[in-house]
Design brief:
alpha/beta, 5-stranded parallel sheet, 20% strand, Rossmann fold, two-stranded antiparallel ribbon
Length: 205
């Protein structure tokens, strides 16, 4: 059975434009493939392990073969559980709003938990190698019109680079923009376009 991990990066579940489009994408995926298993991860409510001194001490003690305590083991096990949950998926869907020209801090927290050496990437003198397999669809929402090569659009380029870094290179993006700068008519037009693209792409995802 195919597993689709659906990561909601916006806490505005009822008024989020990225989530609205992502929900339509999921609905079409289920229509095409009723056996698909959709695993929703709402980062607004999901409990994520803190990458504090205790957790990082556990990480380095365990990874470098040093003596570690039961407290170290338990702290690091929380990180491992999030990584295992992430890597168990075959496909990925991300709803990502732009916050201050980048991704929301809860999504960045999730990304930092997942990006761990030997778990999701390796490093060698030849460079980095991603260990995560699968394909992804990313729904971006932005208040203004920010093309991918815009000097102030750190959201799309950074998140795309991150996914490539951990091994996900088959990535399709759908943009909902502008959600504010174009007024009500601009928003309505942007959503119609994004919803149509999401429904069409879901049929071959």
């Amino acid at each position: 059975m195919t597993k689709l991990l659906y990561v909601k990066g916006s806490p505005r579940t009822q008024r989020s434009h990225s989530i609205e489009v992502a929900n339509a994408f999921v609905k079409e995926c289920i229509r095409i493939n009723p056996d698909i298993e959709v695993l929703e991860r709402d980062l607004g409510t999901m409990e994520l392990p803190e990458l504090d001194e205790k957790t990082l001490n556990g990480k380095y003690n365990i990874m470098h073969g040093r003596d570690f305590s039961e407290e170290d083991r338990q702290a690091w096990a929380k990180v491992e559980a999030v990584i295992e949950d992430f890597k168990a998926a075959d496909k990925y869907l991300f709803a990502v709003p732009m916050w201050n020209f980048n991704v929301p801090y809860r999504l960045k927290h999730y990304m930092d938990v997942i990006a761990q050496p030997t778990y999701t990437f390796t490093a060698s003198p030849e460079g980095y190698n991603g260990l995560v397999e699968g394909k992804a669809c990313v729904i971006y929402a932005r208040g203004g019109n920010y093309p991918v090569d815009s000097a102030i659009n750190f959201q799309g380029p950074y998140f795309h680079f991150y996914l490539n870094f951990i091994g996900i290179t088959d990535i399709t993006t759908i943009e909902v923009q502008p959600t504010i700068a174009g007024g009500p008519e601009g928003l309505a037009s942007a959503k119609r376009k994004a919803l149509a693209e999401a429904t069409e792409f879901a049929q071959s995802f």
